[in-house]
């Protein structure tokens, strides 16, 4: 987000950036328009932001430590579970599949999932 905004000549303050983290796009969009004004090219920024994020997902973003061990343990205990994230369903699939290249990862390992806009309420 910061790189995309900087490339477009817009300064995102640390305070604004913290408000944008982990939120649904509808909320982020409102915050950006409130901060920069109604004439701000918010959709153009979003496209640039998504391009930067896609590169990050492919090159540097990894699962949090302990996620796979936790899912393995829940599998063994046969407990229901859910994955709730502001990430897109595609990002979740990418991370879970990429985490175990030599093993087949069951569809979210039996977990119900809430992704992206589904997590805002």
List keywords for this structure.
121 residues, mainly alpha, two-stranded parallel sheet, 6 helices
Low-confidence stretches: 101-108
Overall strand count: 2
Summed up, the domain count is 2
Strand % is 5-15%
Helical segment count: 6
Distance between the termini: 23 Å
* SSE pattern, N- to C-terminal: HHHHHEHE
The overall pLDDT, averaged over residues, is: 78
Helical residue percent band: 40-55%
Radius of gyration over C-alpha positions, nearest whole angstrom: 17 Å
| Shape, per Cα inertia axes | elongated
How would you classify the helix and strand content by structural class?
mainly alpha
Largest sheet: 2 strands, parallel
Sheet with the most strands: spatial strand order: 1-2
Quaternary structure: single chain
Structural write-up:
- The structure is a single chain.
- This protein is mainly alpha-helical.
- It has two domains: 2-59, no CATH class; 67-119, no CATH class.
- Helices cover 54% and strands 7% of the residues.
- The protein contains six helices and two strands, in the order αααααβαβ.
- The protein has helices spanning 2-7, 14-20, 25-36, 42-59, 67-77, 89-99, and strands spanning 82-85, 112-115.
- The protein has a two-stranded parallel sheet.
- α6 links the parallel β1 and β2 (112-115).
- The longest helix has 18 residues, at 42-59.
- The protein is elongated and about 55 Å long.
- The chain starts with a helix and ends in a 6-residue tail after the last strand.
- Residues 101-108 have low confidence and may be disordered.
């Amino acid at each position: 987000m910061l790189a995309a905004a900087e490339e477009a000549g817009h300064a995102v303050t640390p305070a604004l950036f913290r408000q944008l983290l982990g939120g649904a796009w509808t909320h982020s969009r409102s915050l950006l328009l409130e901060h920069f004004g109604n004439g701000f090219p918010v959709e153009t920024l979003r496209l640039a932001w998504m391009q930067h994020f896609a590169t990050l997902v492919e090159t540097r973003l990894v699962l949090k430590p302990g996620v796979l061990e936790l899912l393995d343990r829940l599998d063994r205990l046969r407990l229901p579970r859910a994955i709730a994230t502001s990430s897109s369903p595609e990002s979740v699939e990418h991370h879970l599949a990429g985490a175990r290249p030599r093993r087949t990862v069951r569809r979210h390992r039996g977990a119900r999932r809430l992704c992206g806009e589904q997590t805002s309420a």
